[in-house]
Amino acid sequence: MSALPINRAPTASDGIRSVICGITLPQLRSTRGQATAIPLGGSLDGADWREDKMVEMTGGCLCGQVRYSATADPAFVGVCHCANCQKQTGTAFSVVVGIPKSAMSIQGKLKIFHDTGDSGQAVERTFCPECGSPISTDAAVMPGITLIKAGTLDDTSWIDPQRHVYCDTKQRWILIPEGVQKFAKMPV
Q: What is the gyration radius of the CA atoms in the chain, in angstroms?
């Protein structure tokens, strides 16, 4: 398997707001409750948006015993192809939405699986103890951020992952779209 090139460092002209663990975070604005990434200085022609309006996301597990809400603009949307995410999801990858941990409110009981990332640091994977639906992941390498499993969101119509990590362990039959960031492992 050939190594994937690591993308160049982002610049202000890329429309970058911040960088967390090497993953660039686009500037986000809310439009009718949907998160929309736009370049810095860009516009949402004809869209109804306000800078101070945050996105409200809701979701839950398959059986309905766990529900959550989050009132924050997503920091990023990405796809993880690591072996542990493949095992947790039971499929080829995990699509995640990174949000500030303090913005998430959970109703219902969760169970936590304590995992270890390739960094050697803790990874906590939460799931419903009744139906087993994975809900979120908290990785010590990204303090203050929780990763919501995108498939648990009530509305996934706005999801458009622009970053793929751990591409060196992706399934060979998965094709990553052109124009998205690809990283062999977790960028540092």
A: 16
Cα dist from 62 to 48, 74, 114, whole Å: 33, 23, 22
Whether the full predicted model's pTM is greater than 0.85, yes or no, is no
67-71 β-sheet, strand order: 56-60, 67-71, 104-107
Question: Under CATH, to which class is 56-182 assigned?
Answer: alpha beta
- The full set of domain ranges for the chain reads 56-182
Pseudo-torsion of CA 155, 149, 36, 171, nearest 10°?
-110
Cα(181)–Cα(160) distance, rounded to whole angstroms? 12
Interatomic CA distance for residues 44 and 1, integer angstroms: 41
Each residue's pLDDT tens digit, 46-90: 333 334 456 799 999 999 999 999 999 999 999 999 999 999 999
Assess contact for 66 and 109: CB atoms under 8 A: yes
